[in-house]
Write a structure and sequence with these properties.
Blueprint (H helix, E strand, L loop, with lengths): L2 H14 L16 H4 L7 E2 L5 H4 L7 E6 L2 H12 L6 H15 L9 E6 L4 H7 L3 H15 L3 E4 L3 E3 L11 E3 L17 E10 L3 H10 L4 E11 L13
Parallel strand pairs: 2-8, 3-4, 3-7, 7-8
Antiparallel strand pairs: 1-2, 5-6
Helix pairs in contact: 5-7
The chain binds zinc ion.
């Protein structure tokens, strides 16, 4: 946006509702340049910082864009829990760029590729007005497609048990519906899959997703999240703070 239009938008926005950067609290901006910067980093491996994930057998490679702390934490939390739905315009493209950067490392060059969101709790999606993992999966699939993979979002997992997602909860493969729906999609051969979630802390949710896919045609080859509690642990990305 050019500065003049940005100025007008800012003034109009101020008339409606006060807005501030979710990372640092700078007033009158949706987000500031400094707090946007981490989202332009290439994703780095993070599974060694997630105890549950590193214990998975076979191991699952996981990448995150940034450590879940400081401005990054504030931004993700504002999107998830403070009604800042406009942050999809920041975090969606970040996920897309990360997926495109990741594509060469997935060991897949041809054929169908699936992007599987770790399903959000229905109550969370209702409260947020947006299905965050599904949005991120869409962005990741677009990024992978830009990088030349035939990637499509496959929301094939559903919360099991009481429908909650949390400690002790399971995820399950959605049973194919009698009529063809996007959830009933079932390929006849193995398809590599990237798991997508907003954040990883212990890795338990990603482990449950990988376990739910066991025995299905979808074979997880990695996981991508916006941010990880322990931060990316490999490469040049130095943990801040
Ligand atoms: Zn800021």
């Amino acid at each position: 946006m050019d500065p003049r239009r940005a100025g007008i938008a800012r003034r109009l926005g101020r008339l409606v509702v006060p807005v501030e950067c979710p990372g640092c609290g700078e007033p009158d901006v949706r987000w500031c340049e400094a707090c946007e910067a981490p989202w332009w980093e290439a994703p780095l491996r993070c599974e060694s910082g997630a105890p549950r994930l590193s214990a998975l057998e076979p191991p699952l490679a996981a990448w995150s864009i940034a450590p879940l702390e400081g401005a990054v934490h504030g931004t993700v939390a504002a999107w998830k829990d403070a009604g800042r739905r406009d942050l999809a315009a920041l975090l969606g493209p970040a996920m897309g760029r990360a997926a495109a950067a990741l594509a060469p490392q997935l060991g897949v060059t041809a054929g169908a590729f699936a992007v599987v969101p770790c399903p959000a709790r229905a109550a969370h999606t209702r409260r947020r007005g947006v299905d965050i993992p599904l949005v991120l999966a869409g962005a990741a699939a677009a990024g992978l497609s830009d990088a030349g993979l035939r990637a499509l979002v496959r929301p094939v997992l559903a919360p099991g048990g009481g429908g909650a997602r949390g400690a002790g909860d399971r995820l399950r493969w959605r049973a194919p519906a009698p009529r063809a729906t996007r959830h009933a999609w079932r390929p006849s051969h193995a398809v590599p899959a990237l798991l997508v979630d907003d954040v990883v802390t212990t890795g338990a949710t990603l482990v449950r997703a990988a376990e739910a896919l066991a025995g299905t045609p979808l074979v997880p080859v990695g996981a991508l999240v916006l941010a990880s509690a322990q931060g990316p642990t490999q490469g040049a990305h130095v943990r801040r703070g």
